[in-house]
Structure formats: C-alpha cells, structure tokens
Amino acid sequence: TNERTRQTMSKAAKDRSTEIDETEAAGGEGEDTTPKFTPGTYVKASKGRPTSGREWKKPQKRHSAIVKLPQLRPSWEEKQSRKRERQQVQQLDRELQEERRSAKAEKRQRSEERAAMRAANEKKGETVQVIKDPKKVKKMSKKQYKLIRFQPGLFIK
Questions:
Q1: Which of 1-10, 29-38, 49-58 has the lowest mean pLDDT?
Q2: First to last CA, the chain
Q3: 57-103: pLDDT as tens digits
Q4: Among residues 109, 106, 153, which one has the least CA distance to residue 128?
Q5: Cβ 33 vs Cβ 26: under 8 Å
Q6: Are 139 and 128 in contact (CB under 8 A)?
C-alpha cells in the first residue's frame, strides 16, 4: 500500500508543477488569472447567434423591467375649457345643419309652387273643344281617345 500512496503522491506533485508552469507561461507569477466573482458582480456572457436564426430581433425586456413614466394629465380647468369648446363647436354644427335643412325645405316648396303655377297656366292657355255627342267618343280610335282629357261638368249628354 505504501508504494501505491507514493505513486499517487508523485502524480499529484507532477500535476501541481504543471499547473504552476501554465500560470507562469500566462504571465503571472503563480497567481490565478481567472476572474473572481464577488456577490453583486456578474460577467455578461455574449449571446452569440440566436438559435431561431432571427438575427434582426433584439432581446426583449421583461414587462416588469420597463420604467413607466408618470402620465401628463391636463388640469380640471383645461378639461372644462376643452369641453366648452367642443360643445360650442357641436352647437355651431347643429345650427349649420338646421340652416341647410331649412334652405332645402324652402327650395323644395318653391319648386312645388312653381310646378303648380305652371300646371295652372297650361290649363288656362288650353283651347277646349266640348264634345256634345257621346257617340263620337265611342267611334274614336285608341290614339284619339288617349288624347282626350275628360273634365267633370263639361261632358254634356
């Protein structure tokens, strides 16, 4: 068993000597050059290429990490003044619509009056021939019958 312990001890000594040689070759005098981690300090590892292959996508922040700024709210007076302005604009709009409606109604009424006057003037200017014999009406062709306008009280039997 003594030989075995001597062999393991010699192997451990060799390993130690190679470690010391490597640190000296790296530029240190036997000191450890690996970064030391203390609580609160972290070394950020590079992400490299994303596995999805979407290199244009940036890493997203967590919703809880987003800093929310206080929203700028208008004061009560500003709100009330905006409300009054909006109501004035709506009132003006209603008035304009009512004016348009009334102008349209007046125009329609004038056109109806003109049509009635035109019809009355045409009636005045007509030359009327009273048909005294009802047998003539029965003998007329369809075209002639369509041209006749019957008026109550003028047809004499």
A1: 29-38
A2: 159
A3: 887 778 888 787 888 888 999 999 999 999 999 999 999 999 999 99
A4: 153
A5: yes
A6: no
